[in-house]
């Protein structure tokens, strides 16, 4: 089994250097490779990749994709990868010491087409109380930080999603399904997402198995700038836009101005609960309801063509 690790990067040379340092310690085998797709960086990314090559026992290839957007970079990497299995991670992620070993272990089951595991935080600084409480329980406020933990047991993924920071898929399955989509995922100046969810759903809709694999572990850098309420609100606004994009062409049975009625009820009740929580000093509850308002606002904005 040949493993192709695919990473997209843009102007994160120091974090990429740390990411590649952890990857260089993996138990790679002949035929494995690491592909770093530079999405138009203007920093020392090229030098970091060149320096890192010396520490690897397998090829480290640099590709360049100048069309902005992580999904465009990932699609370029996938198109050029030679492995039987594609292992996706990010430039601000440190993989566990046995990450590639666990990839081989889970994908040795020929019935598994896609797998992913937990993504835990590496905090730049101590998070605020409202955020720490939510992330410790891996609630919804973990999502904007790219964090995930479904527990210590493996299970079929079903409607749940694993993250592109720690996701493995069989090359032949992805090729059969049309490759990696490029109309979703982060574009500069936006927080558009959804490419991971779309892939998990597409794989399972085609009849293939997808699993959560808790031993497949990585940590994700969480900078101070993402620990602010404003960032969480913005992320959920863009999550609403993402979901409206995925729903494009669908017309719900019960809707008002192309918006499902349950979303309209949700924004009203969440706004009221958020105000109540703020007045009573419960900051975590306030944020949990405020992000509902942001999500529905983004969904409505996309449905009405405002974004």
Radius of gyration, whole Å: 20 Å
Percent helix: 40-55%
Any idea what the shape is? globular
* Low-pLDDT residue intervals, each spanning 5 or more residues: none
Proportion of β residues?
15-25%
Number of separate strands: 13
Largest sheet: 8 strands, mixed
Strand pairing plus helix content: what structural class?
alpha/beta
CATH superfamily of the largest domain: Spore Coat Polysaccharide Biosynthesis Protein SpsA, Chain A
> Which CATH class of the largest domain is shown?
Alpha Beta
Task: Estimate the mean pLDDT confidence.
Answer: 85
- Element-level helix/strand string: EHEHEHEEHEEHEEHHEEHEEHH
Number of domains: 2
By CATH, the topology of the largest domain is Spore Coat Polysaccharide Biosynthesis Protein SpsA, Chain A
Distance linking N and C termini: 44 Å
**How many distinct helices?**
10
Fold and architecture overview:
The protein is of the alpha/beta class and 307 residues long. The protein folds into two domains: 3-224, Spore Coat Polysaccharide Biosynthesis Protein SpsA, Chain A, CATH 3.90.550.10; 229-303. It is 40% helix and 18% strand. It has helices at 13-24, 45-53, 70-80, 99-107, 129-136, 171-176, 195-205, 229-246, 261-279, 283-303, and strands at residues 3-9, 33-38, 60-64, 85-90, 93-95, 112-116, 119-123, 155-156, 167-170, 209-212, 218-222, 255-256, 259-260. The strands form three sheets. An eight-stranded mixed β-sheet has the order 3-2-1-4-9-6-10-8, with helices on both faces. It has a three-stranded mixed β-sheet with strand order 5-11-7. A two-stranded antiparallel sheet has the order 12-13. Helix 8 (229-246) packs parallel to helix 10 and helix 9 packs antiparallel against helix 10. The chain is globular and about 55 Å long. The mean pLDDT is 85.
């Amino acid at each position: 089994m040949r493993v192709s690790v695919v990473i997209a990067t843009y102007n994160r040379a120091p974090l990429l250097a740390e990411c590649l340092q952890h990857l260089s310690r993996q138990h790679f085998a002949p035929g494995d490779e690491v592909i770093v797709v530079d999405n138009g960086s203007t920093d020392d990314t090229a030098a970091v990749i060149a320096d890192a090559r010396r520490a690897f026992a397998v090829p480290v290839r640099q590709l360049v994709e100048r069309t902005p957007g992580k999904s465009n970079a990932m699609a370029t990497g996938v198109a050029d990868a030679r492995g039987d299995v594609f292992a996706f991670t990010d430039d601000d992620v440190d993989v566990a010491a046995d990450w590639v070993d666990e990839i081989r272990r889970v994908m040795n089951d020929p019935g598994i087409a896609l797998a992913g595991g937990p993504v835990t935080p590496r905090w730049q600084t101590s998070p605020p109380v409202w955020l720490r409480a939510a992330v410790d329980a891996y609630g919804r406020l973990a999502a904007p930080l790219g964090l995930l933990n479904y527990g210590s047991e493996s299970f079929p993924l079903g409607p749940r999603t694993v993250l592109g920071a720690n996701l493995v898929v069989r090359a032949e399955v992805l090729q059969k399904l049309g490759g990696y989509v490029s109309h979703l995922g982060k574009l500069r100046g936006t927080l558009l997402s959804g490419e991971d969810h779309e892939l998990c759903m597409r794989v399972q809709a085609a009849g293939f198995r997808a699993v959560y694999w808790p031993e497949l572990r990585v940590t994700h850098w969480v900078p101070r700038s993402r620990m602010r309420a404003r960032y969480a609100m913005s992320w959920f606004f863009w999550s609403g836009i993402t979901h409206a994009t995925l729903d494009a062409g669908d017309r719900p049975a019960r809707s008002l101005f192309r918006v499902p009625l349950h979303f309209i009820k949700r924004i009203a009740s969440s706004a009221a609960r958020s105000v109540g929580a703020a007045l009573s000093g419960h900051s975590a509850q306030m944020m949990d309801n405020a992000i509902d308002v942001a999500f529905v606002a983004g969904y409505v904005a996309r449905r009405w063509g405002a974004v």
